[in-house]
Amino acid sequence: MRITCVHQGYELYGSDRSFVESVGIIRAAYPHAQIDLVLPRHGPIVAPLSELATRIDIEPLWILRRRDLPRLMTLGLPGLPVAMLRAWKRMRSSDLVYVNTSVVADYLLAARFCPGRALLHVHEIPQGTTLTVLRTLIRWSGADVIFNSRATAAAFGLTDTTSSRVVYNGIAGPAVAEPKTYDGRRPLRLLMLGRISRIKGQEVLVDAIRRLPGSIRQRLSVRIVGSAFEDTEREAALAAAIVEAGLSDTVTLSPFVDDPSDLYRWADVVVVPSRLPESLGRVAIEAMSYGRPALVSRIGGLTEIVVPGRTGWSVAPDDAAALSVQIERIVLNPKAWAAFPAAARARYDALFDERAAAEGITAMISARLGGSSRSAVAESLATIES
């Protein structure tokens, strides 16, 4: 059996780590299969994938990123037939092609000519024209679809025309949660982790902290960790905004790290102030696995992760004033959220660990391959549990 897995990234941000975990699930379910991976370039993701793949190929992909659309639709358009032909040849020689994210246009277009072989895993909620284009591509492809949240499925609105299933990302966490140590007698450690972009809301967090009274800012230690995708100007603008707000002693800006585990252990609260809908919100789930309550925007898939007043907090998106008020409450009244860390970990264990994702993904793959989903799921779960 040959299974090809295609991914549009090469780093180790949330969608990249989700891809690694999905490939791990496929390898566990089909230990003797040839698993070929296609990536657009070398990067940090190659190391963990090397332990799972039969081979890793670096090939150009026709990726529909928002910032690249004007170029793709003009100068890049002549290259599309070549990309489609390359994708079609690979699909034709595979029993199954698992495509991670809906922006890999060449594979979705080629899937139409290799019916019954494509499984698409959607991890994004695009906006406007991009959403229309991607929805049309998915319909054209005829692929079965895994959505990573109910919010993602609702945004695409394809449930009546596509074989689909919602499967929450199965995220590996520590064996046990880290103990809660904040009692108000030291600065609250606030962590924001993620790519620097217009979506994630780093500038909203900076504005929220700027609005706090000086007495509250003195009781905060904030780390913003991440890098922009091929956009040094955006990184420089965020660094300048921190300085201009007079927050250099409170807020530390650090570049992307491959392994964020030490950051979660350091943090007391993890903030996800997204301005636009997250398809799910991996950082919030990872935080919960460490017993760290999350403060999130009330938007998209984040509303399916955090239970406000029980496992964390939520505020209106793109509202620095509301975020500022909530941070102040967290600092001033740690007893009010003393039970949140344990409740956050319990919710992670119930909904977002690897077992549930393995069952859902393996069942979709087995159904597409025409095999027995029960045996594949059983093998996958047994491997994970061992």
Descriptive account of the structure:
The chain folds into two domains: 2-170 and 353-385, Glycogen Phosphorylase B (Rossmann fold, 3-Layer(aba) Sandwich), CATH 3.40.50.2000; 188-350, 3-Layer(aba) Sandwich (Rossmann fold), CATH 3.40.50.2000. Strand 2, helix 2 and strand 3 (55-58) form a beta-alpha-beta unit. Helix 1 crosses helix 15 (354-369), helix 1 crosses helix 16 (373-385) and helix 8 packs across helix 13. It has 16 helices and 13 strands. The strands form two sheets. A seven-stranded parallel beta sheet has the order 3-2-1-4-5-6-7, sandwiched between helices. It is an alpha/beta fold.
Task: Describe how the helices and strands are arranged.
Layout: E1 2-7, H1 14-29, E2 34-39, H2 46-50, E3 55-58, H3 69-72, H4 80-92, E4 96-100, H5 105-111, E5 118-122, H6 128-141, E6 144-147, H7 150-156, E7 164-166, E8 188-193, H8 202-211, H9 214-217, E9 220-225, H10 232-244, E10 251-254, H11 261-266, E11 269-272, H12 282-289, E12 294-297, E13 312-315, H13 320-332, H14 340-351, H15 354-369, H16 373-385
Parallel strand pairs: 1-2, 1-4, 2-3, 4-5, 5-6, 6-7, 8-9, 8-11, 9-10, 11-12, 12-13
Helix pairs in contact: 1-15, 1-16, 4-5, 5-6, 8-13, 12-14, 15-16
